[in-house]
Amino acid sequence: MKHFPIAPPDPIDAIKFRMEQMGMTSADMVEYLGSQSRVNEILNGKRKLTLEMIKSLYKGLKIPAEILLA
């Protein structure tokens, strides 16, 4: 870690990675992020995650909050 520090992943990349791991589509993310248009905005980086979204992703998909807050 001292010589080759690893930066935390981008929150959106972490969400997409977990979606891929779990075989989820963007339609499945409506449960955690809100409407389909909001999901698309989040996944395309046009909207930031809210605290409620972060809590939902942490509880539902077990994505560490530290990553989502980065």
Automatic annotation (TrEMBL):
Q: Which InterPro entries match?
A: Antitox_HigA, Cro/C1-type_HTH, Lambda_DNA-bd_dom_sf
List, alphabetically, the PROSITE patterns matched.
HTH_CROC1 (PS50943)
**Locate the HTH cro/C1-type domain: which residues?**
15-68
Pfam families noted in UniProt: HTH_3 (PF01381)
Q: Which SUPFAM superfamilies match?
A: lambda repressor-like DNA-binding domains
Task: Enumerate the transmembrane spans.
Answer: none
**Superkingdom of the source?**
Bacteria
- What protein does this entry describe? Type II toxin-antitoxin system HigA family antitoxin
* Organism name: Belliella marina
The lineage is:
Bacteria, Pseudomonadati, Bacteroidota, Cytophagia, Cytophagales
